[in-house]
Each structure stands twice: as C-alpha cells, then as structure tokens.
Amino acid sequence: MRLVRQDDKKCAERRKGRVVRAPRAGTAPVACAFPVVPAVTARAAGRADAGVHDRRPPRAPWARALLAAALAVALVSGCAQSVDPIERLGKKAAQEMHASHGPRDRTYRRWGLPAPLAPAPRPDRSPASAAGRGGRDLPLVLDRVPTRDKVVFLTYDEGAERDPRFVDMVRELRLPVSVFLTAGAVGRGYEHVARLRAAGAGIQNRTLGHAGLRGRPYDEQRAEICGQRDRIGRRLGLHPRLLRPPYGTYDRTTLRAAADCGVTALVLWRPNPDGGPGPYGSGTALRPGDIVLAHEAGRSRTSLAAETARLLRRVQARGFTVGRLEDYL
User: Fold this and answer.
1) Are 253 and 216 in contact (CB under 8 A)?
2) Taking the CA atoms of the chain, what radius of gyration do you get in angstroms?
3) Is 275 helix (H, G, I), strand (E, B) or coil?
4) Do residues 221 and 213 touch, judged by C-beta distance below 8 A?
5) How far is Cα 246 from Cα 305, in angstroms, rounded to an integer?
6) pLDDT tens-place string over residues 131-169
7) N- or C-end of the chain: fewer Cβ atoms within 10 A?
C-alpha cells in the first residue's frame, strides 16, 4: 500500500487507538507510516454516523508477552493440572492401586490359590501353657500351639529343600514354613537348604541320623541332638532351638539331652487334614494352633508344591491362615 503523508494529528489519534470516522465518499483514504488495525468493523463502519464503535481495542504486543510469561510461570509452579494419573489419584489411592496390581496379587493365582494368603495375627508373647512340659526347666512337647488365633503351622522334614518349585513357592507367597533337617538325609546338600532359608523358611533340628531316640543312653541322645545343632551352625550360621525327634518318639532322657543342647520345644505334629489314612494324614478337621506335617519325607507325591497348594486351599476354605511357628514358640 502506498503511504501518503496526512495530517499528523489524525495519525497521532490512530496511534492512541482512537476511532476515526470513515472517510466520506469520493475522498482518499487516510494512511500513516505505520500498520494500522482498523478499529471499526465493516458493519460498524456502515453505522459510524450512528456512533456505534467496537469497544475492544487491539491488545498491545507487550500485553501478549506478559500473558505468555504468566502462563509459563503457572506451568512451572505446578498450577496446571498434572497429566500423571498417580498424582491426580493422590498418594493413598496410588498405593492401593499398586497394592492391587503388585506381584503378590498375581502370584497366588499362579500357585492355584483362590485368594492371597491372609497375614497371621500378631502372636501372643505370653509363655506357652505349662501343659505339655516334660518337667521343670525341660522343653515343651507339643503338637499344637496354645492359641485362639485361626492359624495353623506348616512343617516339613528333609527333602523339601530339593524341590526348586517348592522353594519358589515359599519365596513368592512369603509362605512361613519350618523345615526340620536330619544330617544323614541332607548330606552335602546344604546349598539347597541355604536357598530355602533365603526364600524365608525356618530351619530347625532333627538329629544327625534318623534312628529313634527313645530308650537310648543320654550320651548318645545328646550327641545326636547337639551334633546336628552344631552342623547347622557351621553350615548356615543358625542355632536351632526347636527339635523334631525322629518318628515322634522320645523319653525323659530325650528331654534332658535336648535341654542341654539349647532346645526349648520338641515339635510333634498333627495329621495332615488333606492326607490319606495313617499317622501323617487322616482328613481330620483343623483346629487353631495345629502343627501340621505337610508331607512325610520320602512319601510318593506328584509335586511338593502342588501338595502344599492343595493343603493351603483347604486351610483357606476353613477360614484359617498360616503362621510362623518360630514366632509363636
């Protein structure tokens, strides 16, 4: 557009954003030496004589820059709504979401359980009932823990450590189990025991050999009990205080020898409620505090993990959960 020098006063008025009447027909348009945004719309120009003007003056460049800067500060300071769903949900809701989709929520299905294993209640730290003691300062002898909590305790003998799937099951389900070891059966396989212990299992004593203790001299019984205690201490750095006598047989000499080896309880067992007839399973009902022998060492089975999962389903169906025996004794 060709610039034509006009009256300076009219150009000054346009610089200030004032509205200038549209030129009369037949006159040349007014042009200034700077770009001008028409302040009068086409419709308003036709009504200029009636005094109808556009009341929204153009926004100055410095105002646009100030607005952009304010928006940038708001975004940096967190005024804008976060697009992160965790932040929108809040900390508590986010924790619930993570908990409901955590690895433990997925694994119970993988092991064939209908629901996650409920945590055991906090055990009563009061001394166990004197009933079942062999006498003053002698270890407890028990196949049930005196508690009203709806918990049972799963125990295993040697051989459980050699099943890799069972070790995975204990670790993934955080299954509190106790394993009683006979040195003659474990042999040099303490690396398997170490993996089972690392998965969360409690490791306890079951003598050096597998011969029954009842009726044997004190020195022999003490050698069997203390000998395995010392071997577990050397191999695993543990000092077991629970003893399962082979075949569940014992006498008063066994109690004396066990006490001298630091044993606080002789742990027998209740029949497996999911097992068949015999001393290791009779289909009996569960009671609070039952110490269950989940399997007999050497008994034929399809899978120790599958057998344990079947037992856990029965425990859950009865409204029980599994506790850690060492926490209650």
Assistant:
1) yes
2) 42
3) coil
4) yes
5) 24
6) 444 555 899 999 999 999 999 999 998 778 888 899 999
7) N
